[in-house]
Design a protein that fits this description.
- This protein is mainly alpha-helical.
- It has 2 domains: 58 residues, no CATH class; 231 residues, MetI-like fold (Orthogonal Bundle), CATH 1.10.3720.10.
- It is built from 14 helices and no strands.
- It is flat, with a radius of gyration of 25 Å.
C-alpha cells in the first residue's frame, strides 16, 4: 500500500505539469495587457517597456513558461502583479474560508443525501421515494449561483434574518453552506438510492434476514456497508469540487474572500501569477482528495487491500525466482 501511495504521488507530477501548461497557454494568449492595466492609459512607452521587462513579459512564451516552472520547483508560485505579495501567501490567507465552506457543505450533503437515499431505497416507489427523487432531480439541475441568489432574496432581503454577503461571523456562512450542500446532497442521494437498491436484492441480504437479524442491522451493517464504495467515490469527487470549482461561483455570489473569489478577481485583472497559483493549488487539492478516497477504499473493503498485498507478494516472488 505504501508503494501505491508513493506511485500515485509521483504521478501527480505530469498531471500538474499538464495543468500548468494549459492554463499558462490560455493566459498567455488571452486578450488584455496587465501592464497597461497597472500603468493606465497615460503611461509612456518607456514606462510600459520598463514594467514589461520587470515582470518578465518581454520573454518568449517558452522562456516565460520554463521560468515559471523553475520557480515552482523552488515552491515559488510567483508574485502578484497588483499587490506585490507572494501568491502562495495570498492563497493561504484565503484558504480557511474555502475549507469552511467545503467541509460543512460536504457534511450537510452527506447527512441529507445518505439518509434520504437509504430511506428512499428501503421504501421504493413510496410517496417519500417519489418526492425525494423529484427533489433530487431539481437539486441536480439547479445552478448553485441561482440558488444562492434565491437564498439572498428570501433570508436577507425579505426575512432579514441572515446577512447577504461577507465573512464576519458564523451567520455569514449559513447561506453559502446551504447553497453548496443542496446540490451535493442531490447527487449523493441518487447514488445511495441506486446502489442500495442493487445491494438489498443480493442473496446475502436475504440470508441475513432469514437468520432473524433486525431490519436496522440488515440495512446499516450489511447493505449500506457494502454500498459504501460507490457512495464514497461520489463524496470524494464532491469534496474535491467544493475545494475548487464549485466554490468559485458561491464565493462570488456571497462575496466571501476565498480562493474561488480570488481566482475570479485575478482573472478580471489579468494577474497571471495569481490565476496560475489558484488553479495549481486547486489541482493539487483535488488530486490529494482522490488519493485519500483510494486509500479509504482499502479500509471500507478489505479485499482491495489484500489485492495490493497479494500483487506485491507475487511481484517479489517473481523477482526472487528470476534471480535464482
Amino acid at each position: 500500500m505504501r508503494k501505491y501511495i508513493i506511485k500515485r504521488l509521483i504521478m501527480l507530477i505530469p498531471v500538474l505539469l499538464g495543468v500548468t501548461f494549459i492554463v499558462f497557454l490560455l493566459m498567455y494568449f488571452a486578450p488584455g495587457d496587465p501592464v497597461q492595466m497597472l500603468l493606465g492609459d497615460s503611461a509612456t512607452q518607456a514606462e510600459i517597456d520598463a514594467l514589461t521587462h520587470e515582470l518578465g513579459r518581454d520573454k518568449s512564451f517558452w522562456g516565460q513558461f520554463f521560468s515559471y516552472v523553475g520557480g515552482l520547483l523552488r515552491l515559488d508560485f510567483g508574485t502578484s502583479y497588483f499587490t506585490k505579495t507572494s501568491v502562495l501567501k495570498e492563497i493561504l490567507t484565503r484558504f480557511p474560508n474555502t475549507v469552511i465552506l467545503a467541509v460543512f457543505g460536504c457534511l450537510l450533503s452527506v447527512l441529507i443525501g445518505i439518509s434520504t437515499g437509504v430511506i428512499a431505497a428501503v421504501k421504493q416507489y413510496s410517496i417519500f421515494d417519489n418526492i425525494a427523487t423529484a427533489i433530487a432531480l431539481i437539486g441536480v439541475s439547479m445552478p448553485s449561483f441561482w440558488l444562492g441568489l434565491l437564498l439572498v432574496m428570501l433570508f436577507a432581503l425579505n426575512l432579514k434574518i441572515l446577512p447577504a454577503s461577507g465573512s464576519y461571523g458564523p451567520a455569514y456562512f449559513v447561506m453559502p453552506i446551504i447553497c453548496l450542500g443542496v446540490n451535493g446532497a442531490a447527487n449523493i442521494m441518487r447514488t445511495t438510492r441506486s446502489t442500495m437498491l442493487e445491494t438489498i436484492r443480493q442473496d446475502y441480504i436475504r440470508t441475513a434476514r432469514g437468520k432473524g437479524q433486525t431490519e436496522w442491522n440488515v440495512i446499516m451493517h450489511h447493505a449500506l456497508k457494502n454500498a459504501l464504495i460507490s457512495i464514497v467515490t461520489v463524496i470524494g469527487v464532491l469534496f474535491g469540487n467544493l475545494l475548487g470549482v464549485t466554490t468559485v461561483l458561491c464565493e462570488t455570489v456571497f462575496a466571501i474572500p476565498g480562493i474561488g473569489k480570488f481566482l475570479i478577481d485575478s482573472i478580471g485583472k489579468r494577474d497571471q501569477p495569481c490565476v496560475m497559483g489558484c488553479v495549481l493549488f486547486m489541482a493539487i487539492l483535488f488530486s490529494l482528495v482522490n488519493l485519500g478516497v483510494d486509500i479509504l477504499y482499502s479500509y471500507i473493503d478489505p479485499r482491495i487491500k489484500s489485492q495490493y498485498e497479494n500483487a506485491s507478494k507475487v511481484k517479489k516472488a517473481a523477482v526472487k525466482e528470476s534471480s535464482t
